Amino acid sequence: MKTLKVAALPRLLIEEGAFEKLPDLVAESSVRRIGIVHGRAVWSRWGDRLCRELSSRDIEFVEVPVSGEPSPRIVDDIVNTWSENKPGLIIALGGGSVIDAAKAVAAMLAEPGAAGKRSVKDFLEGVGSTVPSGASLPVYAVPTTAGTGSEATKNAVLSEIGGFKKSLRHDNFVPKLALIDPLLAVDAPLGVSAAAGLDAITQLMEALMSTGSSSFTDALAVSGLVAAGRAFPALLQNPGNVSARGKMGYAAYLSGVVLANAGLGMIHGAASPIGAAREIPHGLVCGLLLPGTVRRILMRARAQEQRLLIRKLEKAAEALNSEVDDLAELLDGWLEDSGLPGFGEYGFTADELVELAGATGMKESPVLFSEKEVAEIFLERL
């Protein structure tokens, strides 16, 4: 039997109205001072209510907004501000970028000798030279988009535009609680929701096809794809569909679980250099690259008679209510219906995309693409 290792998972609550339970869950922790890292839009609607409920339970709090892809400077600034009177717990209320920032803040506030003295950059994989100790404040993750699955993973992705997009990673950085309330996502713009959803679908598909997959991760990936196959097209038709929002939240959570336990593929190998070159939403990158990548993987699998890989693609197609020969076209259609822009809208040129293809890693892709093939996939979405 193949060795099976499962990473730590957070306590999970998926429920319409679950956000109302958050203050009591914080109170149960016995922590009397917390930090809240949040997105601006969700805070404008839900922040006052949360603050009132926390205050009524004699819980002190400090809060800070985070927008865009988080950088080491953003994390360092928050840590420096909070290091004099540290909170005992961090709430992350927002999308994947907010949750990543919160996990990094929680880690750096607890890292021995680091808070207010060292940059998180010193601890990033491939950037710094110091391995994180694993110390961290507890994080309660409350995602307001359904995409990265960061509420279920052990890494926090930080970027410097023109420099890098790398992870702060340790088994102890998995949030203690993942609270998913579809009502929090209802007001998200369609473009944000579509990019996030395509990110989750990409992660589920890449993990299913990954060379590091197992029967455990395969089952979860298929379950997530079944949920997304029903919910994503419904969401494109009606962004206010609460049931669809809940199903996508479930799919996104599972995408985080399977990426942590099976690994990902070329698309995420491309997302790092592309995201480091320009400030472009991660989910958009995934959505743009998914159809062309799936099309080529299927062609290669058939040419090389990789029966297991073909079967997995068939399972993915079935879960998404498609035939395997029509899978790439289905994904193309979803991308078109989403109205998402191509790389050119973010200032990328053909020459730049060709160069970035050379910096793309394969990760656990079942197919090793040549640099030319990667460039072709990129250029299709210019």
- Structural class per helix/strand content? alpha/beta
Q: Estimate the helix proportion, in percent.
A: 40-55%
The name of the CATH architecture of the largest domain is: Up-down Bundle
Low-pLDDT segments, ≥5 res: none
| Strand segment count | 8
Sheet with the most strands? 6 strands, parallel
Distance between the ends? 45 Å
Describe the structure.
The strands form two sheets. A six-stranded parallel beta sheet has the order 1-8-5-4-2-3, sandwiched between helices. The protein has a two-stranded antiparallel ribbon with strand order 6-7. It is globular, with a radius of gyration of 20 Å. It is 50% helix and 11% strand. The chain has helices at residues 22-28, 40-56, 72-82, 96-110, 190-209, 215-237, 242-262, 266-277, 282-303, 307-319, 327-338, 350-357, 371-379; strands at 11-14, 33-38, 60-65, 89-94, 139-143, 155-160, 164-169, 177-180. The chain contains 13 helices and eight strands. The protein has two domains: 11-184, Rossmann fold; 190-379, Dehydroquinate synthase-like, alpha domain (Up-down Bundle). By secondary structure, it is α/β, with parallel strands linked by helices.
